[in-house]
């Protein structure tokens, strides 16, 4: 796969290369240390930021969100984002590998209960915390920072416990934890479908092929997608291809033909027709618009 956007590892951001599973910092300090991270990039790890001050915007997979105090956002590995802050911006940042938390849990799929840790939809990862819940969340982040600063015995375990408290409180705020429990089978099926798409979207384009891999009928897959996601199964597959096309188009060194070939389209014209049908503009127009916004 041609990579158009740089991928950042935790070890490249930490002063101590041994801290390859987690990085915790006050956000203003993080921004000062990594001034070059305003450009579009992706991470190989989970990434979360709680804003306590600041303005401007940030973008996750080409969807723009306004920065507000009391907002927290999550990104799963592979998503692309950039920042355009206005004025002094502060809060907390935690970068962590999936294994950091999972090593503490007996249930391997526990983190999938939280949409902000399992969904690739940018909107699921951005939460504006109600004012009456914010003090409790901020206190948890302060305790996490204190554990890192003081390096107490079993500090790593305490950080994991505090992070789980953050996740559970945010899950309650979102109000999705109960509905997920009631519809466990459907949500598990959708998660598996999305994981398969992530692995095969270049080579496998048809819902019937995914249904076969999931040991269900195409009609069943389509019905569950419409029930849980509000989209047909084919649209879910096309959206993932479209997202990768957008990511590749941010690299001006790649021709439209090269991108079409990378995404397994038969020819350039078919790719252009596919893209314009979804976005309303051609790939060339999208590229010009995106690069102008970046500059």
TrEMBL record:
Pfam families, sorted: AraC_binding, HTH_18
Coiled coil: none
InterPro entries per UniProt: AraC-bd, Homeodomain-like_sf, HTH-like, HTH_AraC, RmlC-like_jellyroll, Tscrpt_reg_AraC-type_HTH
Keywords for this protein: DNA-binding, Transcription, Transcription regulation
Protein origin, superkingdom: Bacteria
Residue ranges of every copy of the HTH araC/xylS-type domain listed in the record: 191-289
TM stretches of this protein: none
Entry's Gene Ontology molecular function annotations: DNA-binding transcription factor activity; sequence-specific DNA binding
Protein name: AraC-like DNA-binding protein
Organism per entry: Mucilaginibacter oryzae
């Amino acid at each position: 796969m041609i990579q158009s956007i740089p991928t950042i590892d935790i070890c490249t951001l930490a002063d101590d290369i041994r801290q390859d599973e987690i990085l915790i910092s006050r956000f203003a300090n993080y921004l000062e240390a990594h001034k070059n991270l305003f450009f579009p990039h992706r991470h190989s790890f989970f990434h979360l930021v709680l804003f306590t001050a600041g303005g401007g915007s940030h973008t996750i997979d080409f969807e723009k969100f306004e920065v507000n105090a009391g907002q927290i956002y999550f990104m799963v590995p592979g998503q692309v984002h950039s920042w355009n802050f206005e004025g002094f911006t502060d809060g907390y940042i935690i970068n962590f590998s999936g294994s950091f938390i999972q090593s503490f849990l007996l249930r391997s799929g526990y983190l999938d209960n939280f949409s902000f840790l399992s969904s690739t939809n940018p909107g699921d990862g951005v939460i504006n915390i109600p004012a009456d819940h914010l003090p409790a969340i901020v206190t948890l982040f302060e305790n996490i920072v204190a554990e890192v600063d003081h390096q107490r015995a079993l500090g790593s375990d305490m950080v994991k416990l505090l992070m789980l408290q953050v996740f559970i409180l945010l899950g309650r705020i979102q109000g999705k934890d109960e509905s997920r429990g009631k519809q466990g089978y459907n949500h598990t099926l959708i998660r598996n479908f999305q994981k398969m798409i992530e692995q095969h979207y270049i080579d496998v384009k048809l819902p019937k092929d995914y249904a076969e891999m999931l040991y269900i009928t195409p009609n069943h897959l389509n019905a569950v997608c419409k029930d849980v996601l509000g989209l047909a199964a084919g649209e879910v597959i096309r959206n993932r291809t479209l997202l990768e096309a957008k990511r590749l188009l941010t690299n001006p060194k790649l021709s439209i033909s090269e991108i079409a070939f990378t995404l397994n389209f038969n020819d350039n014209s078919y790719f252009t027709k596919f893209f314009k049908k979804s976005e309303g503009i051609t790939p060339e127009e999208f590229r010009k618009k995106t690069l102008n916004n970046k500059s």
